[in-house]
Design goal:
Length: 131
């Protein structure tokens, strides 16, 4: 017998090799309108270890919806450079970034010394990036 809210549970996230506006790599999609029909959230997440990134992970882009990034690690274990329009911020974990709809953004990892969990949440059931 099926339960009323069973469709709200994601037991098998999608792993994709291409992610619009991002460099090639493995991306874990935790939620979108395909995994949860009717969902108005797109959530991607991953854990990174010991990395330095010379170039941003994505080209500068924007969304028609707000987005939030959560960078979770032990205090000081990672530094991230975030660009919002023409402003650059250097952040140390743990930290979070709110990206208002329409604001062009990108980021790169300056340093990761221990496990870093990154969660990106777009307030829409699909990931749609615009240049």
């Amino acid at each position: 017998m099926s339960k009323k809210y069973e469709k709200c549970i994601v037991a098998n996230p999608k792993i994709i090799d291409e992610f619009q506006a991002h460099v090639p790599g493995k991306y874990q999609i935790m939620m979108d309108s395909e995994l949860v029909p009717g969902s108005d959230f797109f959530i991607a997440a991953g854990i990174h270890h010991k990395i330095y990134q010379a170039e941003p992970i994505s080209y500068k882009h924007y969304h028609d919806q707000s987005e939030a990034y959560l960078y979770i690690s032990k205090k000081g274990d990672a530094e991230i450079e975030v660009e919002l329009e023409d402003e650059t911020y250097r952040l140390t974990t743990p930290c979070a970034v709110y990206v208002p709809k329409g604001v062009k953004h990108t980021y790169r990892y300056i340093r990761i010394d221990g496990p870093l969990t990154v969660v990106a949440i777009v307030q829409h059931g699909e990931y749609i990036a615009k240049k």
